[in-house]
Design goal:
The protein has 24 helices and nine strands. Helix content is about 45%, strand content about 10%. A seven-stranded mixed beta sheet has the order 3-2-1-4-5-9-8, with helices on both faces. It is of the alpha/beta class. Pfam families: Methyltransf_32. This is Methyltransferase domain-containing protein. It comes from Sporothrix epigloea.
Length: about 675
């Protein structure tokens, strides 16, 4: 089960610890990497002259970058042999790549974790039944198929290594529509689950949004993983007649007496609600033995309010007697307790409030009481931001959690453990993470969040030199770029989002020229000095027609801001109202001729190539940012291993990168 390497690093490093040491040194002391991973923002691209490209890209790189189309540049950065590319450029009279750029490409490739899925893992994942994949797209089917098989193998391995505490439940943090949990539960109901060595495992789906849970339960019933609740058969008209006539058969009409006789209801009787499992069992029994008469369907004629009142009274009585309804052991043939939903928002890795609600599973081959002590494996596919940290910390904070397997994503949603992220890069002034002037007031970047990045003590305390800033920091721009997948960009897709970025960068310059926005002068900086930041403004998504030209984009963006305010239309603060008023006033005189002038100044192929080249370099370099975030999570588990809490930990790829780029799972097993 365990891969050969604890981290999927390149072969140039002797061990995972050797890789981490060199990685820390590189990200904390390489200026060009720090500029491209956090020191550049697309909205500042044209707010200075001659432009951001010339101030952040090394001078010897610029001719080569401007000589390549964006797809040629991506091939050079990601796929080509860089030495062969230099030789080929010399032969065809094109600008050759400079030696410093070639070395930079080698370094980024060397420090980026390998993302290939092992051939063994790819072949062991059997296809899921069609009913289980209901509602999934192709990407989700691939993820759920691969990861459910991986989790199943991991749970088996952990259970075999510690037979006294086998994994009984799989806790899915951030379950959403519970696609993963449904696939895992179906494995406990399938033919493989009947093997002597295979145990049924429950799934605990933890989700903060109630509508997701409601939708997931509906899919559970449609796919047969969870039995549908019994729907009592009622005849309200008959019941009301019985109540009004008070059992006086003399006053009942012949039609009423016949209806009562057909329903099997004596006067004044109210039969109990039909049990779903009993009804299902009787149907199966009839199919197996057609000569046997089917069991009579039991009908409840009471209203829903009366049934609910009786059920509530019974529950209160059981609580008074110390016998909670949820503690009753289910029938050995009842699959309903394979999936349990817990609604709530996690704030840290302490899952005690979740685990205390879990019902033990009953197995036919267990002791007389039929209950097995609960032992948990915490899992998640693409848990956003800090939720990945909560899942990993559950191994430390909850003794009943025996292992974790977490695939993270949305690194831009991580909070900062070390405070506001600011790069102090040689040649560049510290650039703060600016808050949009028409957005909600956000304090996430200002608070020191102990649950945030970095998790490990080594990453949090590392300093390349005695007088250097302590700790590894990535601001939100760097972490957002780490969510990109440049190896998957097609020519049409990249052209589309480069166009969107291009229009947005020009609009920022228009806002600045017309006084909608102001430059942010940092301490000791003079007006007009290179590197001054410009306050951002939220626009959000626009109609597809707005991206047909620069004029259409600017008109669409201005119309949206003046009517809705910030990007999602929710901010109602006085600052947002001021932004709307400023945009309406100062953009009103913008003519089509003005827009044509901006298009002529910035819309030529050279200026567009400047932007696409820097964006491609940022996305390429951010592969190391993602690798550092994943390595930090592995390092945290290694530190728990040094304390004797964790027996083993590793990172490996579980998805095909071309289908799901966030494909690295972090695994930890309790000692």
């Amino acid at each position: 089960m365990r891969p050969e390497k604890s981290l999927p690093h390149s072969d140039g490093f002797s061990s995972a610890d050797d890789y981490v040491e060199h990685l820390l040194r590189y990200v904390s002391s390489t200026p060009v990497f720090q500029i491209l991973c956090g020191g550049v923002h697309i909205m500042d691209f044209y707010t200075s002259d001659p432009g951001l490209f010339y101030s952040v890209v090394p001078a010897d790189w610029q001719p080569f970058l401007l000589d390549r189309t964006h797809m040629e540049l991506l091939d050079f950065l990601l796929r080509d042999n860089v030495d062969d590319a230099a030789d080929a450029a010399t032969g065809d009279s094109r600008v050759p790549p400079p030696a410093s750029l070639v070395q930079y490409v080698r370094d980024i490739r060397r420090f980026s974790l390998q993302r290939q899925v092992s051939s063994k893992a790819a072949t062991e994942a059997a296809a899921l039944p069609r009913k289980i994949t209901m509602g999934m797209n192709a990407k989700k089917i691939h993820e759920v198929t691969q990861f459910s098989a991986y989790v199943d193998r991991l749970a088996d391995a952990v259970s075999e290594a510690a037979p006294s505490t086998p994994i009984t439940h799989l806790v899915d943090v951030g379950s959403g529509q519970n696609y993963l949990g449904r696939a895992l539960a179906s494995k406990s109901l399938g033919p493989a689950a009947t093997a002597p060595t295979k145990r049924r495992r429950g799934v605990v789906a933890v989700e903060s949004k109630g509508h997701n849970i409601a939708g997931a339960k509906g899919l559970d019933m449609m796919t047969g993983v969870m039995a549908a609740p019994a729907r009592p058969m009622r005849n309200k008209k008959l019941y009301q007649q019985m109540l009004s006539e008070k059992g006086d058969t003399a006053r009942q009409t012949e039609k009423t007496r016949n209806r009562i006789a057909r329903s099997g209801v004596e006067k004044g009787d109210c039969l109990r609600e039909a049990d779903a499992t009993e009804t299902a069992d009787s149907v199966e029994s009839t199919r197996a033995n057609p000569s046997k008469p089917p069991a009579a369907v039991v009908v409840d004629l009471r209203s829903r309010i009366e049934i609910a009142a009786e059920a509530y009274a019974q529950l209160q009585q059981k609580q008074r007697d110390g016998r909670q309804q949820e503690s009753e052991s289910p029938s050995p043939t009842e699959p309903n307790n394979l999936i349990q939903y817990v609604e709530g928002r996690l704030e840290n890795g302490d899952l005690a409030h979740v685990l205390n609600q879990v019902q033990p599973l009953r197995h036919n081959d267990d002791a007389a009481d039929g209950n097995v002590p609960c032992s948990f494996l915490t899992v998640s596919i693409h848990s956003c931001g800090n939720l990945s940290h909560y899942g990993l910390r559950a191994l430390e904070l909850n003794p009943a959690v025996r292992a974790v397997a977490i695939v993270g994503c949305c690194y831009n949603l991580l909070t900062e453990r070390l405070g506001p992220p600011t790069y102090k890069v040689p040649g560049m002034r510290p650039r703060p993470t600016l808050q949009p002037i028409n957005g909600r007031v956000m304090r996430e970047e200002e608070r020191r969040d102990p649950e945030g990045f970095p998790m490990s003590a080594r990453f949090a305390s590392y300093a390349p030199a005695v007088d250097a800033e302590v700790g590894i920091r990535f601001n939100i721009t760097a972490r957002m770029m780490a969510c990109q997948a440049p190896a998957n960009w097609t020519e049409s897709e990249s052209e589309s989002f480069f166009t969107r970025h291009f229009y947005r960068a020009i609009l920022q310059r228009i806002f600045l020229d017309r006084g909608v926005l102001q430059r942010i002068l940092l301490e000791g900086q003079a007006d007009g000095e290179e590197g001054a930041a410009v306050s951002p403004i939220i626009i959000g998504s626009l109609r597809k027609a707005c991206y047909s030209s620069l004029s259409a984009y600017v008109r669409g963006a201005v119309a949206k801001i003046t009517t809705q305010g910030n990007g999602d239309g929710t901010a109602t603060s006085a600052e947002n109202a001021a932004v709307r008023a400023a945009v309406a006033e100062k953009m009103a005189s913008l003519t089509d001729a003005d827009l044509e002038d901006y298009s002529a100044r910035y819309g030529n192929a050279r200026r567009r190539r400047e932007l696409s080249a820097v964006w491609s370099l940022m996305a390429f370099s951010a592969g190391v940012v993602e690798s550092a975030i994943v390595a930090d999570r592995w390092q945290y588990l290694r530190e728990q291993q040094a304390l004797g809490l964790v027996r083993d930990c590793w990172v490996e790829s579980v998805f095909s990168y071309d289908q799901s780029p966030r494909n690295l799972v972090v695994v930890g097993i309790r000692a």
